[in-house]
Write a structure and sequence with these properties.
heterodimer, A: 339 residues, 2 domains, six-stranded parallel beta sheet, six-stranded mixed beta sheet, globular, B: ABC transporter involved in vitamin B12 uptake, BtuC
Amino acid sequence: MTRLHSLRSARTALTGAALAAALAFSGGAWAKEPLRVAAVSGYFSQGFGVSIMQGLEKAKADFGIDLTIVDTGNRALDYEEQFNNLATGDYDLIFVMGWELVDALQKTSDANPEQHFIFIDGVLESPNMTYIDFVEEEGSFLVGALTGLLTDAGAEGFTDSKQVGFLGGRDIPVIRNFLVGMQEGVAFVAPDVTVVDVFAGTFDDPAKGSELSMALYDKGIDVIYQAAGPTGEGVLQAATAAGRLAVGVDIDQCPSAPGAILASMLKRADVAVYAMIKGEVDGSNPVVPGAVSVGIASGGVEIKVCDDMLPRIPAEVMTRMEEIRAGVASGEIAVALNK
Amino acid sequence: MTDIPLARPERHVPVWAQGLIGQMLALLIALAGGAVIIWLVGESPLHVYEVLLRGALGSAENVAGSLLQATPIIVCGVAACVALRGGLFNIGVEGQLYVGGFAAAWVGFTLNLPAGLHVVVGLGAGMLAGALWIILPAIMRARFNANEVVSTILMNYVAVLLTSYLTIAVFKRPGGWSETAPIAQTAYLPQLMDGSRVNLGLIIGLALALGLYLFLRYTGAGYAVSTMGSNPKFAAYGGVRVKRNIVAVLLTSGAIGGLAGGIETLGVHRRFMEGFAPGFGFDGVIAALLANGNPLGVVVAALFFGALRKGSLLMEVETGASREIITVIQALIILCVSAQILIRRRGGISGEKRWKF
């Protein structure tokens, strides 16, 4: 509580000492000021941003936080001033999502090192900020395990091909995380199955994604796991066109190509954001600078098998997946990270 | 405004005052309309306007922020104004801004030049790119009378997508967002004060507006352009080489549009980002229309738009009203001003037909 107050503006700092003293005597039975939270992004109406909003709204309903949503729009000129408007000490936590905001964010954070910024889905250089870092390897491990098991079991929709596909956007470290996780998962359950990987070289080209997927499907590959943003939408379309399977990423992509999507690897921003606010509100896990890894154990990363695919999946595969999931969550199965 | 025959002779209000009263009325109606919308979304209009005003002008930093926002609109407005006064409609300022911004940034991050020269070459490259970007519409307009409104709009899409392609596929900075490498320090357009990104571009914009005003008012060439705008047949009859002037006017307009982009990349962002400044070109065109083609009026309109934009950023944080409310207010202003023009025309006053569709 006292730590929290040290973050707040001069306006409340005056009452802070009195409040801390009162707390010391009353033993904490004090009506707390609500936590003031802001969230900044240009994507609150799209996939991942919607997920963040759900987490924030839930936190608002459960903890009565003050919530301010700031839409950055698309003018780069505005970003810096938008951060400066927020970094006045009036907010305890400011969530930020979107790589285009990074430069403006760094500048504002350097000028206001006391301000708690939380950058979602990435780790930047600044030591003042908190980062929500999804452990893509763990979720991708489960994707690898599922596709490997189904390949071995020769489940409905799987031929005798011993290869599974991976399509990445650009060949950059964060996308390699997905690939490495998948490879490990496949190797864990089916050493005879291999992962064929391709990189589209772009995140913004669904046509290219579609074309490359078709080439993979033509090789006899039954399922492709995509980690390629909008390029990946082409993979989902190609799966429908080829009558094969794809695995979605980030959000539940099952509805975008029903019948062609096996599962989605979810990055649950809602869970991560909610957990972070909860830890701050009840003091169990206050927000501190540095990277916070969110993986299977915390529910921030998970795999969702599409409902219409459930009948195709043999019971023993589902049982095995449950075991593996529990193993990864408990740390019994160590998923090596891509370093 | 005195060179525009708006008034009925029998009215006793001076011409300039009439124009001013009209625009003020348009502004008031638009603000009232905005208030209704703010009220409908459940906020207090007074509170929202108070925050808007404070965000725009509440402190020295906020005023600087408003000027920063106004800078590209002033320059783009002057670009549109040049064409408008020549009876042409360059709605491609947006595209010229993009290619100009990219060209200036390219000079900034590839060439190695001494400090002052680097900026000049960068801005020059921006102007050249902007002029080149309108050369096709200009020639087609002069030679074949092809409607420049359509061709310049089409060039916008090409410009935005081309610069996106160049940024993502050719010059992307490794890692990070879709942006080029940062420009060299020697290419930084100097900033006017500490703690704000307001830069020399503002002075350039004001100088351009004043220069255009003086040019149109006091020089023969300026008179030729104005005459061409108000009555091309008469201008041709009077010895103005209309075709040559069409090309010259459009190229100048395009070059200034390109300059606006150069100012943004060298003065503010110091690199080129994909989709870095959506809408400034169009805001400039609107400012020029609002000002009825008067370069000094463009500055006033641009300052007003800049203040609205800056204020809206605080509005978004402090009130429940969306930042987009100001887009609605802007649109309402445009509607009111166009309505005024229609009403005046119905009153039998000529002289408003300075652009054609």
